[in-house]
Amino acid sequence: MLSSDKNIETITQLVEMVKHNFELRKEYAKLDVVEKVVRLLSAIALAVTLAVILSISLFFLSAAFAVWLSQFTGLVLSLVIVAGIYLLLLLMVYGSRKSWIERPLVKYLSRMLLN
């Protein structure tokens, strides 16, 4: 009888420890998800901020280049040349989008989220 009570008490303790372990793992998973979401959102915010700053800088550099080029070709032709340069860049980026954008982005996100 005494050993049976001790076995029941041991099994009860074991069940309580398993429940506690499960609760701790569930809490850890929640915290891990929150950490990864925060890291992802901060990376997105940084990318958007850098893209806006780069776009504004690129706009002013393009305008300055067009004004400088207009001394040699005229204003309308210089603006067409700048637009043509951007179209060529667009075609280059579109043609190399997998190696320049998709693969690095997939690697970064998988490293960040699966780590």
Report on this model:
With 115 residues, the protein is mainly α. It has one domain (2-114). 97% of the residues lie in helices and 0% in strands. It contains three helices and no strands. The protein has helices spanning 2-73, 75-95, 97-114. The chain is rod-shaped and about 100 Å long. The chain starts with a helix and ends with a helix. The mean pLDDT is 92. This is Holin-X, holin superfamily III. It comes from Prevotella communis. Keywords: Membrane, Transmembrane, Transmembrane helix. The chain crosses the membrane at residues 40-69, 75-94.
Quick description:
The chain crosses the membrane at residues 40-69, 75-94. The protein has 115 residues and is mainly alpha-helical.
